[in-house]
Amino acid sequence: MRISGKTHGVRARRGAALSVAGLLAAPALVLGTGTSAQAASCTASKGPYQKQVEKYLKRPVDGRQSTADCKAIRTFQASKGITPAAGYAGPVTWRTMKTITAQKAAGKNPNKARKCPTNKGRIACVDLTRQLSWIQDGAKLRFGPVPVRTGRDGAETRTGAKRIYWRNIDHWSTLYDVRMPYAQFFDGGQAFHSVTKSMYDNPGSAGCVNMRPADAKSYWNLLRNGDDVFVYGRKPGT
């Protein structure tokens, strides 16, 4: 889809403004069981994924929460933007660990299953399931894969074949007073753009594909209006 002129600019800016709502919404401070937390103090409670988390962190796998376990879990949570960083081995923490494991397994062959089209020339692929994106020329990997942060539950990044139709290197959302650097719109208000949040920060965006600044800049340099985008899969937790 191509939109030009003043009408396009207004529509794209409005859509882009709506797309950043998820960036501003503070995630609920929950431990994964619906219990709110007043502060992220270290918990003595074991979580439902205690053994899995212990194994991931190379801790003794005994299913019991220790002070050392809690500290290791809190360090992981803080590094990934998981709140509250209370050391609780809950669903969000374990889901994040599984996502990171899947991302690492992708290596330099993220399209091994051929789910992203290889007959389109240059195309930006977005795998919601693994929260990964990359650029390929036909079947040849051009850039990536890199971790991304896509739409939260109820505001999912829409799947299917798209095309980049508008780009703004220093886009500004007047509705939310938020910068969206390296914005490249491909579906209504949904776009690739840079954020300073962790790619694992929950609950996610309002539909945009959030990227680390360096990755968003590379996408800006490699993509142009009219280039294909293909979004598939389902984000864990949606």
Automatic annotation (TrEMBL):
Gene3D superfamilies per UniProt: L,D-transpeptidase catalytic domain-like (2.40.440.10)
Domain annotation L,D-TPase catalytic: ranges: 121-232
Domain of life from the UniProt record: Bacteria
Signal peptide: 1-39
Thylakoid listed as a keyword: no
Active site: H193 (proton donor/acceptor), C208 (nucleophile)
Pathway: Cell wall biogenesis; peptidoglycan biosynthesis
Pfam families, A to Z: YkuD (PF03734)
Recorded coiled-coil stretches: none
Keyword terms: Cell shape, Cell wall biogenesis/degradation, Peptidoglycan synthesis, Signal, Transferase
UniProt entry tagged with the keyword Amino-acid biosynthesis: no
PANTHER family per the UniProt record, alphabetical: EXPORTED PROTEIN, L,D-TRANSPEPTIDASE
Protein name from the UniProt record: L,D-transpeptidase family protein
Biological source species: Streptomyces salyersiae
